[in-house]
Amino acid sequence: MTVLVRSVRIRRVSARIAAATLGVLVAGAAFAAIELPTDKAALIELGLKHRTAWDLYKAFQAQANGGQRLNPARLPDWTGVYSRSGILFNWDQDQGRNRMPTAKLTPEYRQKLVTKLDNIEKGIEFDNLSNCAPPGHPRWMTEPFLRDFVVTPDQTYLINEMVNDIRRIYTDGRDHIPEADRYPLWNGDSIGFWDGGKLVIHTSSLRSGQYQRTQPEYSEQVETVEIWEKTDDRTLLAHVWVYDPPSLVEPWYSKHTYLKLTNEDKSLRIHYWDCGENQNNTVIQTENGSSQFRDFDFTDKDN
What we know:
This protein is α+β, with helices and mostly antiparallel strands and 303 residues long. 18% of the residues lie in helices and 24% in strands.
């Protein structure tokens, strides 16, 4: 009996090793090891258990035994054109229609947000996107434009139509850029691994920015951990933990949902974005801090 039990165990281990070696990985694969709680309080607590985003990422990596390599012949199917669902410009959907977000902000960044919201109510608002600057990450998650996702064995491309914005997630086992060579980038430097149908990502080397026009700001110390997975034929779900000590008292957890759009006639496409195509897109900052078009030219109503 002992020999039989050992034999069964050996066969199971051998099968697991063989599957990992072949890279057999599809959404919902049997060898997924990371099991996330469904309760938001537990997901928040998961972030609180780890001092940094890197610590959380490495904990997920340990649970997944380092993750698996994708088989080029059996890639997760994330094809299609998607758009963000819910209250588009809230970082956390649970904010609802409340003025303040669910984040626990430091006093400095809370006051920055209150001042910004007060100015918006007075009609004073400026956004770098008016100058066609990229939104940057984490803000990338909240933009409302069309998106598509390209999964390859070594990289996954998260593509937003707006300003041709592409995030490259390296899943070939490389580490981050050496610290001596790092500098702030709009979308930072992202590495990740697959665990079953889940893509786990750590992003650092980011520029400062804001989550959205009515949302808080984040500093250049911001880092994120994301877990993406396809939960049904139409839905891509991303769990995100943001760590940013200058702005956040504790990590800010949120869930983001992207729905595949009906596109039977193949009319939806990701188009090239060029602000220069419209001469009326030049925006300047006014004396009161708001924004205005420079030399806006009205056309004949028949044109």
